[in-house]
Amino acid sequence: MLEFLYRRENVELRILTSRITEALSRERRSSIVNNRKTQRQIESLTVRAEGKSYMEVLRSIKESVDVDKLGLKISSIRKVGENSLRLNIEGGGDKANSLKREIQNSVNNTKVRVRNNDQDFFILDIDGTTGEAEIVSMIQGELGLDPGSFTIKALNPNRAGNQTAIVAVREEHARKFQEAKRIRIGWVACRIKSKIQLIRCYRCLEFGHRTTECKGADRSKNCMNCCSAGHQARECQQEPYCLSCDITGHRMDQTKCQKYRRLLEESRRNTKDAPRNTNDR
Ligand SMILES: [Zn+2]
Ligand SMILES: [Zn+2]
Ligand SMILES: [Zn+2]
Asked: Which residues are placed with Cβ below 5 angstroms of ligand 2, an ion?
């Protein structure tokens, strides 16, 4: 039911609702939700070291990190590229982040990405003078969450002179966020909204199915901005291109795209009739 597939830093997939679940009855859906709760939590970490082979990366992290000391249980290690590997860690919470810190502190030139069951939320209406530190302390104070249970991923200004924060909240605390609906930051009772994330295939880049179900073209090495091969989105110099609309001018994963907006709306509707304690996935 729960699957994470990703390629790069700016790619993230969280399943809100799938074609399959849409077809299922509400009863069946809630039983899936309940089963999921009892499943063990796995967090995933990708380690990459430029210029080192998979084996060298593995050897160097094994030599320098003591997983027993950190109290970590690794459930699998596998090669995911010439110079990267993926570790699955049991236990949930913030285990993957502590391993990430440890690897980065002890092995030079490694890039570590963590994928866990965090749920993203928007905090809207934050006034323009507010900084990250203040937001963190308000979340602590108002919602009673400790700083280890959430991360401010971004704080973006908008046209009205305000800011929107994107906050990744650890799965076990997401409900608090969801139920709060508003949080006071500065003078304003800021709105909290869940960030809807759609099922997406990171092989063909299309929405609506997962990589394991993909029958499309392999675009897994293509740029997420212009969809052409040979570079990554963060170094992209081209105009954005949307595969769904087959036109340039917008990315396929931005609200500028009508088709993308429609998918979001659909997903939002489905989330509404899903049982309340689903954590929206
Ligand atoms: Zn696909
Ligand atoms: Zn590009
Ligand atoms: Zn489009």
From this structure: 223, 225-226, 236, 238
